[in-house]
UniProtKB/TrEMBL annotation:
The keyword Hydrolase applies. It holds the Pfam family Metallophos. One of its GO terms (molecular function) is hydrolase activity. This is Metallophosphoesterase family protein. Residues 20-107 form the Purple acid phosphatase N-terminal domain. Keywords: Hydrolase, Signal. Residues 121-315 form the Calcineurin-like phosphoesterase domain. It comes from Patulibacter brassicae.
Length: 603
């Protein structure tokens, strides 16, 4: 396996300011034998895709099937055909002097051969830096996910290219190896205000459609916004609830939906769209009513399994009265933007003949979905919370879970998450999943500045925004020297008066958040990172360690394994300096002559 990964991901890559970005896998209508890859050339250049086998053997090159110029950058799409099912391939995109790194993907199996998992995320939309930090542990915990679904409102203003950069950047390292797919939300059309004239409006969702290429098999005129594909026993059906500024779901899609469900030969059926049939908050009731009138009767009559939605920025899950084992309707949000629940919570469900098994406000979640021959389980894990959250469960806890069973000749829905086979822990998930990832101990670094020491730390996301205290020991008991709060990202940055010179050498600091304590850090570490400066996608890491010693810079995403990204030798003075590719939010550490620095986060 190591040799396979080395062959796929290794090899020199030319550095260039015009290197491709926003590289993503998009599903095709035949994911066992084909694969679509999309990317952007920031300087508007052309490009191609190089494909190779798991052993590193070159297979072929492919030029883009489609290329479109948008705001000075050229967006490319290539669909590879003639692939083998359940087979790993390597690829890179770009052109001479400006290639992406090598990435790997695995084609789908023919049908449902074994249990598998995927992720579903509600609206990202606003505060995308925070969103990226919140979703990263979910990707790490479900490291074997085969797909990631988004249900619209990926960004807030569709013509703001910076927001698209943040959205793609938050998933870097993930959507290059697993398929990402979505439908547009209203914010892929209408921009940042609900009044005419719309700010940053994109009436045809051109920017959304330019970034992706999904199967072209929906209603004519709805390219990349209404489509169907089958993946390992699941029929995924995407619908467009906002194909114009009036949020009209369109009668053509209703007829297409009915026919597409009826024709399915898959074990499971999942329908996804943006505006929900029942609002989970005290917002958008009239929009939900339009969707309900268009599609609810079809969804119920055809007895689909899951209906996944967003838009109303509160978690909700339930069913139509009298049909508790029928379609399960889920609404979720993954960003820090929330709507009030209203009184009573779930009023739109109650007033329209439905039962909400869960309605939770100001709580962001990521949904892990496990598919097996006889069970489909969904587990919603809390990834972030607002100040008005209506649950006392902490970040990292399971908010809601249920399982749809199809065995013994009948279908039934049960509370609790169950999959056909237990999945053994992986190297990036030592048994605790998202909860362990979000709950890891705080990390702390210390910078000495004249008469003051500056203490920087990161506490677990479960403690983000909460009270913390910094403790100091000068060789004896620990004493609190300053109190404060972590910011929304879990960062702590405080200064304290330096200790007396006679005890400075043995002074150590630690950070306490709740009942968790960080490891202790001395004022003058043998190995330490002294600075990090970002320029675009590159970060210059400066550090200090033993003189003339071999050194390496290591990077970790979330709870993943550390990987070396650069090797260098320190100077006579012990200095280390190297510019490397470090995705935002990654932890960085320096290793010199057997000593390791405390991690720092790349912003």
């Amino acid at each position: 396996m190591v040799a396979v990964l080395a062959a796929l991901l290794g090899g020199p890559t030319a550095a260039s300011a015009a290197a491709p970005d926003r590289v993503a896998l998009n599903p095709t209508a035949d994911p066992a034998r084909s694969q679509t890859v999309t990317w952007r050339a920031p300087d508007g250049a052309g490009g191609s895709l190089q494909l190779r086998a798991a052993d590193g053997r070159a297979i072929r090159s492919a030029t883009p099937d489609e290329s479109e110029l948008l705001r000075g950058a050229r967006h490319h799409a290539v669909t590879l055909t003639g692939l083998r099912p359940d087979t790993t391939y390597g690829y890179r995109v770009g052109h001479d002097g400006a290639w992406s790194p090598w990435h790997a993907f695995r084609t789908a199996t023919d049908g449902l051969r074994a249990p598998w998992r995927w992720l579903y995320l509600g609206d990202a939309q606003e505060e995308l830096d925070t969103w990226a930090r919140w979703v990263r542990p979910a990707f790490d915990a479900v490291s074997d996910a085969r797909l990631v679904m988004h249900v619209g409102d990926l960004v807030n203003a569709p013509n703001e290219d910076r927001e698209w950069g943040q959205w793609f950047g938050g998933q870097r390292g993930t959507i290059e190896r697993i398929n990402v797919f979505s439908v547009p939300g209203n914010h892929e059309y209408v921009g940042t205000t609900d009044r005419l004239p719309f700010v940053d409006a994109d009436a045809s969702a051109r920017t959304f459609r330019t970034h992706f290429r999904f199967p072209r098999n929906g209603v004519p005129g709805f390219s990349d916004t209404n489509y169907v594909f089958d993946h390992q026993g699941v029929r995924f059906i995407g619908l467009n609830t906002g194909d114009n500024l009036g949020y009209d779901p369109s009668p053509q899609q209703a007829a297409w939906l009915d026919r597409t469900i009826a024709e399915s030969t898959q074990r499971w059926t999942v329908v996804f769209f943006h505006i929900p049939v029942f609002s989970s908050a005290d917002q958008h009731h009239s929009q939900a009513a339009r969707v309900r009138r268009s599609w609810l009767e079809i969804l119920e009559r055809r007895d689909v399994d899951l209906v996944l939605q967003g838009h109303t920025h509160a978690y909700g899950r339930g069913f139509v009265n009298g049909h508790p084992d029928g379609p399960q309707y889920v609404v979720s949000v993954s960003s820090p933007k929330y709507y009030d629940l209203g009184t009573p919570p779930g009023a739109d469900w109650i007033a329209n003949g439905a039962t909400a098994r869960a309605i939770v406000g100001q709580t962001s979640t990521a949904q892990e979905i496990c598919v097996g021959p006889d069970r489909l389980g969904l587990r919603a894990t809390i990834i972030g919370k607002g100040p008005g959250t209506t649950t006392d469960k902490p970040v990292g806890a399971v908010l809601d879970a249920f399982t749809i069973r199809k065995d013994g000749g009948r279908k039934r829905v049960e509370d609790g998450f169950s999959c056909d086979e237990p999945r053994p822990p992986t190297a990036t998930e030592p048994g605790g999943g998202v909860a362990e990832c979000l709950g890891r101990p705080a990390i702390v670094d210390v910078a000495t500045r004249g008469r003051h020491d500056r203490i920087r730390a990161e506490v677990p996301l479960a403690r983000a925004g909460g009270a913390v205290r910094v403790e100091r020991s000068t060789g004896g008991a620990w004493r609190t020297v300053v109190r404060g709060r972590a910011d929304a990202h879990g960062r702590v940055d405080v200064g304290v008066a330096a200790p007396a010179r006679r005890v400075a050498a043995r002074t150590r600091y630690r950070v306490v958040a709740g009942t968790g304590r960080s490891s202790a850090a001395g004022r003058d570490r043998a190995v330490r990172i002294t600075g990090m400066a970002r320029r675009g996608e590159r970060v210059t890491v400066a550090g200090r360690g033993a003189a003339r010693a071999p050194a390496r810079i290591e990077v970790r995403r979330g709870c993943g394994a550390w990987r070396s990204v650069a090797r260098v030798r320190s100077t006579r003075a012990g200095a280390v300096r190297r510019t490397v590719d470090v995705p935002r939010g990654s932890a960085v550490r320096l290793v010199v002559a057997g000593g390791r620095s405390l991690p720092r986060t790349a912003r």
